[in-house]
Amino acid sequence: MSSPLALDVADLSKKYGDRMALSHANFEVPMGSICGFVGPNGSGKTTTIRMLLGLITPTTGGGHVLGESITEPEKYLPRVGAMIEGPAFYPALTGFQNLNVLAKIGGFATDSIAGLLDLVGLGDRGNSKYKTYSLGMKQRLGIAAALLPNPKLLVLDEPTNGLDPAGIHEIRTLLRKLADSGTTVFVSSHLLSEIEMISDHLVMLRLGKVIFAGKTSDLLAKQQPVIVAKPENVNDLNKLAQIATAAGHEAIIIENTVHVTGTSDFSAKLNKAAFESGITLESLTPVKASLEETFFEMTGE
Amino acid sequence: MWNVLRAELTKLRRPSLSASTLLAVTFVTSLITSVLFLLVDSPEGNGERGVRIGRDVLSLPTGISLSFTNTAGLLGVVALCVFAAQTAQEYTYGTLRNLLVRQPSRMKILIGKLGAMKLFAIVMVTFSAIVGITLSYLFADIKSISTQAWSTADAKTAVWHSFINVLIATIGYGIFGMILGLLFRSPISAISIGVIWNLIFEGLLSAFVKDIDRYFPGQLLSIVAQGGTDRISYQYALFTSYAFLIVGLSIVAFLFKKRDVAN
Question: What residues does CATH 3.30.70.790 cover in chain A?
């Protein structure tokens, strides 16, 4: 039996005038997963998120969020936390007051606000006005606001924008913790390396079209691993590439290294063959293709 | 809807908005009251558009609330600005998307906002009434105007009627501001267009074109605040001005419900 779905969209499209912002998108996100929603700027990520949250009406198609149709957002939004296209709050109110406004509108308990501010690292700045916050602090407040309903589904649009490396690490840890406690996290980003680190599922968009939807591991497994070999003597580069090619593997020379397509089992064979040919290797590293490389390969960019 | 109203009150209660609004209300009420009483003997007049309001009129039971009634137009401008800004800023700050995620019923958002702003208008008008009546006693004493009739039952009725009429007019101006806020989605555009329309366009045309004020919502609301005039009855002014506002509000409410929130 397949796992229950937190999100599913079928044939979802949005057209603005002559421009197709999203074209016939189909994807599913299993409950409890961290799903990365990736694509370059303008690929339709925010448009999709807005449709899922009932902010804009699809031109065609539909979908479900937490089992409810996206045409009836009032049925699922009380269980959804969201930060869309960056944080947006009232500058003259404090962080605490801003969360208080949203908690009141949603009918949520306001006694969790102080705890949420602590959780995102704003405990000591909750009573400062929003307009005095740095970009990173604004981002943290946006995440706290998204957590107000104790959500079953958390939708975050570019949550690490403006955060320093420590802040990015904290958010990554927080998202993993939330997923472990059963919250589904749907997180959009154009930082593919960031998404690769946290997501177990992926939806990839390019020019308004879904080019991949599924498990991150499945996508990366499709990519040929590469062995990077570095000879001690640069004069041996061509000879080393010829050895790999003779064994039936593609090899290219990049700077002082030879990149050989092949799984890690070939590393030992290559090492032995190089040694027998009188080549001393300084290093031999099997490298898996990154999400970024995979994305560029898929999109041809 | 109640949740939205409570949330809106949190925003409206912030010191920067409430203090500046009450300061503006104090300023306009003091200005109108001082002109009305301190220039009572001036040949240039002491009322709107140079009208002379004599000591005999100010000594009547209605004299106690006259300054407050005359303040309605400017109170209306303040209400227009506050209602327009509070509505349009949701677009400029991008906070509308947060509100709609927490309360997907757009009509509940609109009704809750309107309810909170009406409460804000009640506070404004009450404050103006207190300032106006207090200053009226002070200036009447300075100018030796009799205030004997101001403590009669008729005076209390006059104050109550004035309060209701000024409140209806102020809320009307505020709704006009809210309509502009929803339409233009920018506080600066909504406020400038609203003020230019009310003070300049309607005001100038009404001064030069006879009877055209019968068709202008701003002018009619001003007549509602006065309790009607010799030319235009209270009932006509109230019905026509609010008919304009209800039609306008229905149109923008429809747009608000249907429009994509893409910012």
Answer: 223-299
Å from B166 to nearest chain A CA?
Answer: 30
What is the topology classification, in CATH, of domain A5-221?
Answer: Rossmann fold (3.40.50)
Residue/partner pairs of A241-246 with CB below 8 Å, 24 or more apart: A243/A270, A243/A273, A243/A274, A243/A277, A243/A279, A244/A270
Mean pLDDT check: name the lowest of B57-71, B86-100, B242-256. B57-71
Considering only the beta carbons, identify the residue of B97, B104, B260 that sits closest to A73: B104
Q: Do A93 and B4 touch (CB under 8 A)?
A: no
Q: Return all residues near A79 (Cβ < 8 A) that are at least 6 apart.
A: A66, A149, A151, A152, A153
| More reliable by pLDDT, B120 or A226 | B120
**pTM (2 d.p.):** 0.82
CATH 3.40.50.300, chain A: domain bounds: 5-221
Tokens of B112: 């809750």
State the ipTM, two decimals. Answer: 0.84
CATH superfamily, region A223-299: UreE, C-terminal domain (3.30.70.790)
pLDDT of the residue at A301: 62
